[in-house]
Amino acid sequence: MNKETILLQGIETLCKNDKDIDVLISPNKEKIIDLLTRYINEIELFNPIYGLVGTNNTEELIIKHILDSLAPLGILSRVLSSLPCAPQTFGLMSPCESSFFQYYAADAGSGAGLPGIPLAIAMPHCGFSLIERMGRRAGFLHNTKAALSLTNINVEESEIEKAAGGRFDLVTFRAFKPLEPKMLDALFRLCNQGCIIAAYKGKMEKIETEMASFKEQRAKIQWEAIPYKVPFLDEERNILTVRKI
Fold first, then answer.
1. Which residue, among 149, 175, 141, has the nearest Cα to 42 in the 3D structure?
2. N or C: which end of the chain has fewer CB within 10 A?
3. How confident is the model at residue 85 (pLDDT cuts 50, 70, 90)?
4. How far lies 131's CA from each of 25, 107, 162, in Å?
């Protein structure tokens, strides 16, 4: 199958399995597929130079990175809808772009823009700030933003610990490493009151081991691991949501 077929079938499966994903994607499916295809092309063009993702296989890129980023879209949409909606100016956007969104999200350690860019494409009503400390990857994100004309994303070249805090309703985190207390504190810095952190994770067993290290914070945080299914991928995947009590 070519990339458009894999992507289309994967998106249709996600829409079929989750009504909230269907509500977000189906009305603009052609545009979303086009933008995602162009995004995949950008990754494939620059990956040999910048080392954006750990694969050169198009099918693996689509399944393990693009579809994996989008698979919990319904979960994230429901998480956001549970928060108070208070549109405000997204001060880091340039004046020529849209400044008002329903919610604001940060993609911490965005790298190649995963999951931030696929989520931003599917949720144009949300403003996304892609926080990336490496200059060459931040440059890729700036280039991709321009190439795809994505007016609801902003790129911040910064370490997570040094980025301006207190701004976001949702913080996504897709780094495949344990979520430790120091990292969780850095992610909470980015949050406004009521914000939720959503970490892309694998097996439930590993999540429980990770969260066991938060003994001192047990009375201060509430967490839940929510399973999601990635089309064409036979691997256990969960979204770990964490919020302050």
1. 141
2. C
3. low
4. 25, 6, 10
CA–CA distance, 234 with 225 (Å, rounded to integer): 18
Residue with tokens 């990292």: 183
Query: Is residue 43, in this structure, part of any structural domain at all?
Result: no
d(CA 72, CA 11): 12
110: domain CATH number is 3.40.50.150
Q: Decide: helix, strand or coil at residue 102.
A: coil
Contact 64, 40 (CB under 8 A): no
pLDDT tens across 100-125, in order? 788 999 999 999 999 999 999 999 99
Structure tokens belonging to residue 26: 């189906």
Q: In this structure, what token pair is assigned to residue 217?
A: 């914070």
How many domains are there within the chain?
1
Please list, residue by residue across 82-94, b when 16 or more beta carbons sit within 10 angstroms of its beta carbon and e when fewer do. Answer: ebeeeeeebeebe
Place of tokens 């894999």: 6
